[in-house]
Amino acid sequence: MQNTQIKAFWLLFTAKLFFLTHLFAQTDSVESKNKVLYTLAYNEVPDNSKIPLLGFVNIANGNHSGLQLGFVNITHNNFKGLQLGFIDITKGNLNGSQIGFLNFGSKNVQGLQLGFGNHSKQNISGSQIGFFNQVRNNLIGLQMGFVNEVKDSTNGVQIGFVNETRKNTKGLQFGFINETKGKVTGWQVGFLNVADTIENGVPVGFFSFVMEGGYRAVEVSSNELYPINIAFKTGVPLLYSFVQGSFNSNYQNAFAMGAGLGSLIPLKGRFYFNPEATYHSSFRSDNPDATSLALNIRYSISPNFQIAFGPSIVQLSYQKNGYESPFFKFGRYEINDRNSLVFGARVALTYNFTELK
């Protein structure tokens, strides 16, 4: 078995040596930069070569097409095909794929970059998939990774823990933190969303901050569970989120925190339909949790001040025999010994930092 492997190795070595001799014979008369060097470890070919590069280090001194398979693959101009290695570098345009730990495209990329770190110095039409992805100009397609950055505009999708576009986004940003420093046409879905302007789109998250055309407000309210509530609201009128602190001195634990989503839907004149969903929890595990839906009508006294009122329904979840009477109620329906529905109402006074007509 061992003799067979040795024979196979020498047969392969002889064939490659014959191939190299043939190549050198053809390139003896050209300048050194156009010579072909083709070995098991190091390969170098001239401009417009289509010879596959299979070695530890592969270098194409100009344009190259086909396959580069090695630890380091470098093309000094345009490349068309597949670079597969630990480090892949194309100094011109890339039309194809780079699959490696680190992938670099010095000009435009049309295709796929798949690796731990992916970088395109100009535009990319296609996909970057890795831990860190960066495009210096525009992205048309997909970025998917832990950190995604586009220094110009995005037309497509960014999916990651942190997504950043320095100019405009047209499409979707989906992650824990999403930031567009220009205009968003589409969606931002994440825990924290930041945009200069939202146009024909919606940010969905725990906290959304929109500079132009956004909604930011402080509200004092009273409801069936807590006579005193103070909330901060942020997002856009169509969909905003809020955090809320609440107080009821009659409860075993007087303080509670809440969070929710709401919407301002214009009606006639200065009136808005203002549905809000809220989840409340106290600081003690033996106190009830509350999930509520309020159907408010909001009226703009001025561009910055509104009042709101409307009916609400609350589902209370508590430990057995742990029910505490609400601040007020219009009715109560007991589902079981741990859950009940309370029918009540809300009234609120709101100051918003962004004007509502």
Identify low-pLDDT runs. Answer: 1-32
Amount of beta strand:
over 45%
Quantity of strands, as a count:
30
What best-fitting shape do the alpha-carbon axes yield?
Answer: elongated
- State the helix count: 1
Mean pLDDT: 87
Described by strand count, sense and barrel closure, the largest sheet is: 20 strands, mixed
Fraction of helical residues: under 10%
Describe what you observe in this structure:
37% of the residues are buried. The protein has a 20-stranded mixed sheet that branches. It has an 8-stranded antiparallel β-barrel with strand order 21-22-23-24-26-27-28-30. The termini are far apart. It is mainly beta. It has one helix at 2-27, and strands spanning 37-38, 42-45, 53-54, 57-60, 64-69, 72-75, 79-84, 87-90, 94-99, 102-105, 109-114, 117-120, 124-129, 132-135, 139-150, 154-165, 169-189, 192-198, 202-204, 207-212, 215-223, 228-236, 239-247, 255-262, 265-266, 271-282, 289-300, 305-317, 331-336, 339-352. The radius of gyration is 32 Å and the shape is elongated. It folds into 2 domains: 2-212, no CATH class; 215-352, Porin.
